[in-house]
Amino acid sequence: MKIKVIITDDHQLFREGLVNLLFSAPDIEVIAQAENGEEAIEKAKHFKPDVMLLDIAMPKMNGIEATRELKKIMPEIKIVAVSMHSDKQYVKGILEAGADGYLLKNCTYRQLTDAIQCVYSGKKFLSEDITELVISGYLDPSKAESDSYSQLSEREKEVFLLFAEGKTTREIGEKLFISVKTVGTHKQNILEKLELKNNADIVKYSLKKGLTQLD
Q1: Which of 3, 84, 119, 173 could share a disulfide with 78, CB 3.0–4.6 Å?
Q2: Distance CA 23, CA 173 (A)
Q3: What is the CATH number of the domain that holds 203?
Q4: What confidence tens digit (pLDDT) does each residue in 31-48 have?
Q5: Residues 177, 181, 183, 185: what is their CA dihedral angle, to the nearest 10 degrees?
Q6: d(Cα 215, Cα 207) in Å, to the nearest integer?
Q7: Domain-terminating residue out of 84, 117, 139
Q8: pTM here?
């Protein structure tokens, strides 16, 4: 039985490239594609894949948010982040959200298929570059995550990313099913922890750290 895969990336050319690459893999079948996190969740509910290849920086809903939501509603799905970024913020963010693997977009065909087969079997998979990044962070305290972003709670990170994407306080409240007052409290905590002043600073911080990108 073939491993069923959904590919999610906001660049169609890259998605099609992965489809063509995996076409020759005898034990892997691409069953659907999506161009953002929201669509990825809908496709996952409908097609029920074994593995999802997921970009991180995408419009509407980024890969970190999508991973967190997918793992909440369909924990059996294995998720491999496929990103052009090796920045530790990306790696830490999506692994903490529940991703089972991380690949860079310049990976080889063998690395791609190995990653899919590895996470499908229940193991974790990190490319060599990412493994070195993770290990160096643990072994060298000076390189470990000292960024104040790591001080945010999971809920604060959710609120932060939504503000960074331009959502209003009311929109965030409706999306997360919390009151406007609670959103305001989270925002105040975020600003204090990150030493920021306003929404514009949140957007700048997010772009600088690679947590979101300009459309």
Answers
A1: 119
A2: 43
A3: 1.10.10.10
A4: 999 999 999 999 999 999
A5: -140
A6: 11
A7: 139
A8: 0.66
